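tool_call: predict_structure(chain=1)
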Amino acid sequence: MIDLSGFNWFFLAGVLGLCIGSFLNVVIHRLPKMMEREWHAQCADLRGEAPEEQAALNLSKPRSRCPDCGHQITALENIPVFSYLFLRGRCSACGKGISLRYPLIELLTGALSAYAAWHFGFGWSALAALIMIWSLIALAAIDFDTQLLPDAITLPLLWAGLAFNLNGSMTDLQSSVIGAIAGYLSLWSVFWLFKLATGKEGMGYGDFKLLAALGAWLGWQMLPVIILLSSVVGAIVGVALIIFARHGRNNPIPFGPYLAAAGIIALFWGQQLTHTYLGLLS
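tool_result:
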């Protein structure tokens, strides 16, 4: 019988995180394309047209291929991180460079998964933390690429937070429900105040749902810390992009990655940050 405590649990969670990170790369790449196909099919249906015939595309089909030469990735070429290092970051068939983001997502997922196992120990809280972390990594990367936060992830994440907190995995159920409501309404209010004042939309509805999901997981008490952290990090990165990367002031900057990062920080250190924050106010 495997002892899932101490180092064994820490190591197993890290390896599992690496494998999940490899799968998240598929989700990050394919889910927006799947959504775009669905939108085109819906538009065609509204126009009374037959949908365009296309090859199957989902999270399992077709098998991963090199986007340049079409070489089908073998199992040995799909081992998280190690395959990238062995291939020296290039396709084995055409030699074209492979994006560094693939192993970075795998490493980030593995490291955070291992830390969650160490932080929470073996149990429901650790499982809840892993599901939350994996979902947030996928959402952050998709929003960074496409400025979309898919309902296919945010809504199940919200309901999963409420479900896990039925037995108080992260917080009590009352705090979880209030957190979901307050999280959504807080950004919804900011959205409409900004729109009424400027006539422009400052954020998307996906941001409301993501903060609602974080409130459902961590409780309403964590929302001030999450909003403060995400706003500060977003402001710093936004100013840096404008100054150093010559990012246009009118070009939108996705807010989802900052919310996701703040959510992960609050997951591990939210209580300490809240106590520090309240101590400074008093």
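agent: The longest helix spans residues 7-46. Proceeding to next step.
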